[in-house]
Design goal:
Length: 606
């Protein structure tokens, strides 16, 4: 009976092991599926819609071939179509489950019926303007460049698309293939093989027991003659002189035999355990160390997509920092203007002029790019669109708060506001970077003060302090900027009065800057508002025979282009300020978050 069960175990083991191996061989399906895209008409760009990429589950790999450099980038479909709106391109879309290619022409501008001059020749304009390269656009979430053959892996949602091109002038690759990975894992192959190995080992064990039983029971059984009590037989030693030979093997030989039989199933099971035991051959269980799901984030109904992702913001800030560093080293305002604007650019232009005339004039502080501690993109699908970011500067042990803005789909992001955060600044609660926040309108009535009035109000506080009519709306505790201005003005006035109290006057005035305020919403119905104010210092003689000399002031002398004046001089400093403005009904006051200041100009009073 033992042999019957052993044979049954061998058969069952063969079935189990065979089924497991078959799952990993003959029954295993392909691990990829592929579709090809052929372009019939030449165009410098090829846009693969997200619906095509998402037509099958799994990761997508785009492959394209062409002579020279091949470029690919991905981003939101709406952004890419906006970037391509003024040029001809091929669009790959999904129609009835099949990828179709369509040539898209730019829309002609609408003619003004009141205009009398003919529209300019578009062909002549295209010939005069250089082709626009797709490399390095701030719209792309990521980009790739490879030579001759491009293989780019993606895992994009339906609202994302892929752009393929060469240099923006030559036709894009005419042949494109998209490959999807298929889950062909066989989670029961491993368990089947192991189970077969266990059954095989059990069968071998039954077979050994059967052989042992046969050996013990072989030969006829006879009734032995009675032996004298005084003559026992030692079964462990052969005693040929008595005519008796022991039928049992010695203990050493018996042990050797058992070990030999035990080695067979052990080797078989070990070999089976290591055969085909990849991760795809086993059922996947939940990892107890996996993080628990985070709290749900509710996106307001109708809110548009955030302008950038965090990785995109990091890359943009790195480009801004690199370009501004190059411009600072070369004192090139034209290069600086490619990445800076507003008060930030004005301060840089003044610095370059002063450094060109004054040998030891300091270089402006470098714009930090990382680590990015906070990013709050504007939730907006159109342009201009902006992003607020906070970057920690390890070298100076400070943090910078910045606003970067993109004017249109083809323009790079530019730094328009920058200030240093106060050491003990408490930031308000902000939306997550993947949600974004809407921009608050300058005349918004939902804040305790509209953003467009903030510069005027704070300038009045700078001039009049606690006696200002706006003083009750602003938090004075922790406002180091206001106190430092007051101390600096008093110090300079005391020094001036020591020598020129009877011949001249020194006055100070703060006025709103020319740059429009920017405000972005917080979670408490408030807003972070960036503004500029200008501090204007005026020194002029009060005696008709007196003149103002600049012998000890090379800065004003360089900017004004004069060494002395009988009418006096004005010196303008630009301040960039960030505030938290609470919403209507809040008991909080307006708090200063950060500030930055630099000299902008000096002129002779006409």
């Amino acid at each position: 009976m033992r042999f019957v069960w052993a044979v049954a175990a061998f058969v069952l083991a063969a079935v189990l092991i065979g089924a497991g191996i078959a799952q990993r061989t003959v029954f295993q399906g392909p691990d990829t599926t592929e579709t090809s895209v052929s372009v019939q008409e030449d165009a410098p760009y090829l846009l693969v819609d997200g619906a095509v990429l998402g037509s099958l589950p799994g990761t997508q790999t785009v492959r394209a071939e062409a002579d020279g450099e091949i470029f690919a980038a991905y981003g939101r479909t709406a952004d890419m179509r906006a970037w391509l709106s003024d040029t001809t391109y091929n669009s790959v879309t999904l129609e009835d489950g099949v990828a179709q290619t369509t040539l898209v022409e730019p829309e002609a501008p609408e003619a003004d019926p009141a205009a009398t001059t003919p529209a300019p020749d578009a062909t002549a304009d295209e010939a005069a303007e250089p082709a626009r390269s797709p490399v390095g656009s701030d719209l792309w979430l990521d980009e790739f460049q490879q030579t001759d053959v491009l293989v780019a892996p993606f895992q994009l949602p339906a609202e994302m698309s892929v752009l393929v091109a060469t240099d923006g002038t030559a036709p894009a690759p005419a042949e494109l293939s998209i490959t999807w990975s298929i889950d062909n894992s066989t989670p029961w192959a491993g368990p089947l093989i192991v189970a077969g190995g266990v059954v095989l080992a059990f069968g071998v064990f039954l077979y050994i027991l059967g052989i042992r039983h046969v050996r013990r029971s072989r030969g006829p059984r006879r009734k032995g003659l009675p032996l004298a009590v005084t003559e026992p037989i030692d079964l462990a030693v052969e005693q040929s002189d008595k005519g008796v030979i022991s039928a049992a093997p010695t203990r050493r030989s018996l042990d050797r035999g058992r070990r030999a039989f035990a080695i067979v199933p052990a080797v078989a099971v070990s070999a089976l355990l290591f055969a085909g035991c990849s991760a795809d051959s086993w059922p996947q269980t939940l990892d107890s160390a996996s993080p628990s799901p985070s709290a749900s984030v509710i996106i307001p109904e109708g809110q548009q997509a955030p302008a950038v992702t965090k990785a995109q913001a990091e890359r943009i800030l790195a480009r801004i920092a690199e370009t501004s560093a190059e411009a600072d080293a070369a004192m090139d305002p034209t290069l600086a203007a490619t990445r800076l604007e507003g008060a930030v650019l004005a301060a840089r232009e003044t610095n370059y002029k002063l450094r060109g005339a004054i040998a030891d004039y300091p270089v402006p502080s470098a714009i930090p790019a990382k680590p990015l501690a906070l990013v709050l993109p504007q939730a907006y699908d159109e342009w201009p669109r902006s992003v607020m970011a906070v970057v920690d500067d390890a070298e100076s042990n400070t943090s910078s708060i910045m606003i970067i803005t993109q004017a249109d789909a083809w323009s790079p992001y530019k730094l328009s506001y920058q200030a240093s955060l106060e050491a003990d600044t408490l930031m308000p609660d902000l939306a997550a970077e993947y949600v974004g926040a809407p921009q608050v309108q300058p005349d918004s009535p939902f804040l305790i003060m509209p953003p467009e009035q903030l510069a005027t109000a704070y300038a009045d506080i700078v001039d009049y302090g606690d006696t200002s009519r706006y003083a009750g709306l602003f938090e004075a505790d922790g406002d180091q900027f206001r106190s430092s201005i007051a101390a600096d003005r008093q110090s300079r006035l005391d020094t001036f009065n020591q020598t020129a109290t009877n011949t001249g006057s020194l006055t100070f005035q703060a006025v709103p800057g020319a740059q429009d305020p920017f405000a972005i919403a917080t979670l408490e119905s408030g807003a972070i508002v960036a503004i500029t104010i200008n501090e204007v210092d005026t020194v002029k003689p009060t005696n008709s025979d007196a003149v103002i000399k600049l012998e000890t002031n090379p800065t004003v002398k360089t900017l004004s282009g004069a060494e002395q004046s009988s009418t006096g001089f004005t010196t303008t400093y630009g301040d960039q300020l960030f505030f938290y403005v609470p919403g209507q009904g809040s008991t909080e006051k307006i708090r200063l978050l950060g500030y930055g200041s630099a000299i902008l100009d000096a002129k002779v009073i006409s």
